[in-house]
Every structure is written in structure tokens, then in C-alpha cells.
Hints:
Elements: H1 5-20, H2 23-27, H3 43-63, E1 79-83, H4 91-125, H5 141-164, H6 166-180, H7 189-217, H8 220-232, H9 235-252, H10 256-259, H11 261-270, H12 279-284, H13 288-297, E2 300-304, H14 328-340
Helix pairs in contact: 1-3, 1-6, 3-6, 4-7, 4-9, 4-11, 5-6, 5-7, 6-7, 6-11
Amino acid sequence: MFRDPRAFWLGTGAVIAGVVLHLPMFLGARDMHYRLVGMPVDAAMLAGMALIVGGLALSAYGLVPARSARRHADAAANLRVQTLDEAPLRLAHVLLLLVMAAAVTIDAMKPTTLAFVVPGMAEEYGLKSALRPDGDVPVAIFPLCALVGMVVGSLAWGSLGDRIGRRAWILLAPLVFIATSICGSMPMFELNLAMCFLLGMAVGGMLPIAFALLAETMPVRHRSWLMVLIGGDVAGAYFVPSMLASWLEPQFGWRVMWLLGLPTGVMLIALNRWIPESPRFLLAMGRVTEARAIMERFGARLVAADHDEPEDLEPASRYAQRFRRPFGGITVGVAPALEAG
Length: 341
């Protein structure tokens, strides 16, 4: 499924190495209870930043299909995916559900972690908060950057996922989680803001793509309750950070919560073999054989498209269509609920 597996794995290794080069800064501040404000950025950290940027670019190259890959797409123009209503749940469905449950939990953990880092951040950087009303810069700007990033990510990554594949974006998100874990070693508040915005983009982009992949692979009669089940798994995103914060923050300070992005991101990437590509995307790329193989695993099939009936495929990625029939009412009803959540 990779465009270039060597590029992806080499880039992933570079991102991890770049984060590891930031750890001496954090560990060296043990005697100061891991306070890093005012510390200079050393050569190892600069090298780590270069590795992270280069690694992300290399991994994206290894995942994103080349434009020439569409050359056989016309051969699949008369095919569509038909999910079998009565197909039983198979081992492939269960494995995908477990992986997506882990992905959704880790994804939702990122914004909930803000509640546990903001008080310590306000104290270390002297920011304005309810406990420090004399500060100049409000600490609320930090979660604001994350929320803005989530909105941008949900809009941009969802549309791009239709063009370059669901799996590519699902695997890029944990790479961003790993890269932005350097917030735990970042002395400067401004760089923390930039990293938080990037983290928000990955969080906001991964969630809708994960649910879209589930909707495309689950049997119709099981789809509703399975989607609700995965959505309810978000409760773990509140429980896990709260427990970790109670165990780790008293000893290592607030920064350790950001460093958790390294192991959680690595865990998601390690589960990549159980994340299939969207068969509809494969059809759009003309990769009929691969689409057929995935559908056989998930109890679906490829059939000839009936152009006299409404097409079963997703509409083109144009935002205006979300407000037209038959999607307009759903968009108006669901969007405020998602914002409130």
C-alpha cells in the first residue's frame, strides 16, 4: 500500500530520532523540577528539529501515491463497492475495530491532555490565568491554537483523505503526534504554540477519516451500533490522561504529558498492518485487484455500476455539497452537536 516503504520507514526513524535528541534537555532539568523556561536551544535540539522536518517530508513522500498512479483509473470507472447487508462480522472487522478504537482513544487524548498541562504551563511561563491574574499573555491562547488547528485539520485532512487515501492520513497523524511531543522539551512558549497548532491539525484530521474508513468496511446491518461503540470509546481519552497525570506530573512536571506523544504515536504506527486502504479510493486509483482483495476480507464485493440509479459512492469533495440535498439537513443538525462535544 505504500508508494515507497523505504522512504516511509526511514522518515519515521528520522522523526523518532529527532524527538530523542530533545530528551537530554528535559532529563537535564531534573534538579530544577523539569523547568526549562529561559534555557537555550542547543545543537542537539536543532539537529533534532531538522530530522523531524525532513522525516515528516520523507514519510509523506513514501505514503502519498504519485499522480501517475491514476493512469489505470478509467478501467475501474464502471465498478463500485457493494457492502453486503447480511455479511457476518469477521476477524478482519474485529481487528480493524480494535485498531480504530486505539486510534480514536489516542487521538482524543491529545486535546484532553490540555487540561493537565495548562496550569503548569501558566506557572512556568508566567502567563495570565485564574490563579495568576497578573500575567500579560493569557494561557488560554494555548488551547485556542489547538482548537483552531483541529478545525483546520478536520476541513483539510478530510478532503485530502479522499484524494490520497484514508490509510496515508491515518499513518501521518501519529507521526505528527510523535513530532509534536518535543513540546515536553521546548523552552520557548512561542514554539509550544506552533507545535500545539500542528498537533490540533493532526487530531482534527484523523478522527473523521478513521470513522469514514470504518463506515466503508463494516457490514451495513452492524454499522450503526459499531460506530456508536467506537464513539463511546472516547471516554477512555478522559480516563487515561487523568490517571497518567496523577501518577507522572507530581514527579516529572507538566511537560511529561506531551512526551507521551512518542510512545502512543509509535504504537499506532506499529498497528499499521491491520489498517486497510479504502477500497473506494483504490478503485479511484484504478487498483482493482487490491480493492477486490480487501473487499473479500471484509465481506463486500465489486459490482458493475448502474448509471440509471443513484451512485453509491461518496460525493466529490466540495464543501457546498454538504449543504445540499440530501446532506444539508444532516450537516445543519450534526455540526452544532459536534462543536458542543
